TrEMBL record:
Keyword annotations of the record: Aminotransferase, Cytoplasm, Glutamine amidotransferase, Repeat, Transferase
Domain SIS as annotated: residue spans: 296-435, 467-608
Name the UniProt record assigns to this protein: Glutamine--fructose-6-phosphate aminotransferase [isomerizing]
Tagged with keyword Cell membrane: no
Summary of the function given for this chain in its UniProt record: Catalyzes the first step in hexosamine metabolism, converting fructose-6P into glucosamine-6P using glutamine as a nitrogen source.
InterPro entries, A to Z: GATase_2_dom, GFAT, GFAT_N, GlmS/AgaS_SIS, GlmS/FrlB_SIS, Ntn_hydrolases_N, SIS_dom, SIS_dom_sf
GO MF: carbohydrate derivative binding; glutamine-fructose-6-phosphate transaminase (isomerizing) activity
Pfam families: GATase_6, SIS
Enzyme class: transferase
Family annotation (PROSITE patterns): GATASE_TYPE_2, SIS
Active site (catalytic residues): 2, 613
Catalytic reaction equation(s): D-fructose 6-phosphate + L-glutamine = D-glucosamine 6-phosphate + L-glutamate
Taxonomic lineage: Bacteria, Pseudomonadati, Planctomycetota, Planctomycetia, Pirellulales
Length: 618
């Protein structure tokens, strides 16, 4: 979603701003803009569409100045247009700001400002904040020799009136030597350089510019000048903050010969799974080890119920986790959409542990669900990819995925790493209970086979490409699987709709007869995930039912399965692996299938329409 960059120092601000915005492109956006202070005032350049058009609008000679702000906007209030693109001006142009988040009371504030004579050029909630700061400046007391204190007072007074979420970077026409940043519910980081300071909505724009970073917390404001920075609580005084080393993998990602990030990330999975497991398998005790759970084995032993929550693909990995934890550790699990959990107010027993699962660590609903359950006194843990993200900070502890930056909007390697972490947690909880040493060792061995099995699954790429050619014009595709492969069916369907815009549905295979079978005809392919195992015969019967109604069948099955070959129109071969690791292996051909279909249909694979990488609004 929206991205923020800001610079104050002695270098040309424009270089950092444009490069930084490119690094934020992966978050998803539909317009962009920069403001650079060029002497007496700001030069503002905006564009609709990609950063390339912004670069075109800026021309060969970038406006010169050493203070500036930049923004990528994902439209919420008002369409993607030049007027709605940030930066926005407040008052008579003395305030310029960029904003991430949503202001819920913007209408009331806007009406009040209009009555005072302010005029609005955009439909955004963000422009309201710019005028509000300008209005507060009129009442802010003079602070001799320290103009930033007066401006700080105005920003404090303005943000105190906002209901909703904000990440703000604000600059002032008449004092071009400082920036103010403010955060509530929308992440912001400060890059600490020498003689230069940066603000950004995540760490990726900072890579290569500084090695030191500060994560702002909610209700904090920062004042940045070329000589230093300070952080304050919105309603109190200065706050001591940790300056942390910037993780080198925070955003430095290149295509390395692949055509798209999504494809690269699909191919990285053997390695990302290895990284998720690195140092976490303990042969001596036949269990898994985690450094950051922040709970004693006794506390973990007393867990009687687990809630797994997340959104989208992360919700699918929660479903996989439900099967794994109940199967291996025998602890009851419920899976909740974070967006529902945050408002539903379900009764939660003592000794319930809540895991928020998230790639970005910034998903607004997952963050809110964790905060709400934590407020009620429950232990909250995060399974998260982005180090230092809001959810990683808000949880009591957790497990990092170590999958490296995921740039493609459609989640792939983060998903398999989430499943892998959940498998290790199942082993860990199981070994605290009934799982024997011997079974623990077997599970460890099976986990160790995973990178090789995923590598083998990637070998189906050519085969999948042919299948994609055949079905690229389908208007609906069904995905069917049972048990461990039911979440895989959901995830396969989500991947297809996200990037190829084909309607797709995932179901437990047996559910098909209860409705979806009505969709089956000769133009509606069904993808069956059919490994050998307890429900194999039942899924075979479902496949026959689809065939009997003229529906084309694509089967994901092991190589030596003549029975499946005789019924399915197309068979994609996957390695045979134990049940609990099947979701991690079987999703790979489905990721590739969506990729190839999307490519054939001419879709923008890495930046699908309407989608954002970090969904930081409700
Ligand atoms: C799907 C996808 C989304 C995310 C969802 C949650 O490919 O990427 O469905 O999974 O927005 O995001 P995170 O995991 O960052 O909380």
């Amino acid at each position: 979603m929206c991205g923020i960059v800001g610079y104050v120092g002695s270098d040309e601000a424009g270089n950092f701003l444009l490069d930084g915005l490119r690094r934020l492109e992966y978050r998803g956006y539909d317009s962009a803009g920069v403001a650079i202070h060029c002497g007496a005032e700001f030069t503002i350049t905006r564009s609709v569409g990609r950063i390339d058009s912004l670069a075109g609008a800026l021309g060969d000679v970038m406006p010169s100045g050493s203070l500036g702000l930049g923004h990528t906007r994902w439209a919420t209030h008002g369409p993607a247009s030049m007027e709605n693109a940030h930066p926005h001006l407040g008052g008579d142009g003395e305030v310029v700001l960029v904003h991430n988040g949503v202001i819920e009371n913007f209408q009331v504030l806007k009406e009040g400002l209009i009555k005072k004579g302010y005029t609005f050029v955009s439909a955004t909630d963000s422009e309201v904040i710019a005028h509000l700061v300008a209005d507060e400046l009129k009442h802010a007391p003079e602070t001799n020799g320290q103009p930033n204190l007066r401006y700080l007072a105005a920003v404090r007074a303005a943000v105190a009136q906002l209901r909703g979420t904000y990440g703000l970077a604000i600059a002032f026409r008449d004092h071009p030597n400082f920036l103010i940043a403010a955060r509530f519910g929308s992440p912001l980081v400060i890059g600490v350089g020498s003689g230069e300071y940066f603000v950004a909505s995540d760490a990726s724009p900072l890579v290569g510019r500084t090695e030191r970073i500060v994560y702002l917390a909610d209700h904090q404001l920062a004042v940045l000048t070329p000589d230093g920075f300070s952080v304050l609580h919105r309603d109190q005084g200065k706050v001591r903050v940790d300056i942390r080393p910037l993780e080198t993998d925070s955003g430095e990602a290149s295509l390395e010969g692949f055509d798209h990030y999504m494809l690269k990330e699909i191919y990285e999975q053997p390695e990302s799974i290895r990284n998720a497991m690195r140092g976490r398998l303990d042969d001596e005790n036949a269990t898994a080890v985690f450094g950051g759970l922040n709970l004693t084995p006794q506390q973990l032993r007393s867990v009687e119920r687990i809630i797994l929550t997340g959104c989208g693909t992360s919700w699918h990995s929660a479903l996989v986790g439900e099967y794994m934890i109940e199967d291996l550790a025998r602890i009851p699990v419920s899976v909740e959409y974070a967006s529902e959990l945050r408002y539903r107010n379900p009764p939660i027993d003592n000794n319930t542990l809540i895991f928020g699962i998230t790639q970005s660590g910034e998903t607004a609903d997952t963050l809110a669900a964790l905060k709400e359950t934590k407020r009620k006194g429950h232990r909250t843990l995060a399974i998260c990819n982005v180090v230092g993200s809001s959810i990683a900070q808000a949880a009591d502890g957790g497990v990092y995925l170590h999958a490296g930056p995921e740039i493609g909007v459609a989640s792939t390697k983060a998903y398999t790493s989430q499943c892998c972490v959940l498998a290790m947690l199942s082993l860990y909880f199981g070994r605290l209970r009934h799982v024997s040493f011997e079974s623990g060792q077997r599970i460890i061995n099976e986990l160790r086979q995973l990178p090789a099995a995923v590598q083998q699954a990637l070998a189906c790429d050519e085969q999948v490409r042919d299948v994609a050619k055949k079905y690229q014009d389908a208007s609906t595709v069904l995905y069917l699987g049972r048990q461990y492969n039911f979440p895989t069916a959901l995830e396969g369907a989500l991947k297809l709709k996200e990037i190829s815009y084909i309607h797709a549905e995932g179901y437990p295979a047996a559910e098909m007869k209860h409705g979806p079978i009505a969709l089956v005809d000769e133009h509606t392919p069904s993808v069956f995930i059919i490994p050998r195992g307890t429900t194999y015969d039942k899924v075979m019967a479902n496949m026959e039912e689809v065939k009997a109604r003229g529906g084309p069948v694509i089967a994901l099955a092991s190589r030596d399965n003549p029975e499946v070959e005789s019924i399915a129109d197309d068979v994609i071969h996957v390695p045979e692996v134990p049940g609990f690791t099947q979701p991690i292996v079987n999703v790979v051909p489905l990721q590739l299938l969506s990729y190839h279909i999307a490519l054939l249909r001419g879709c923008d694979v890495d930046k699908p329409r309407n989608l954002a990488k970090s969904v930081t609004v409700e």
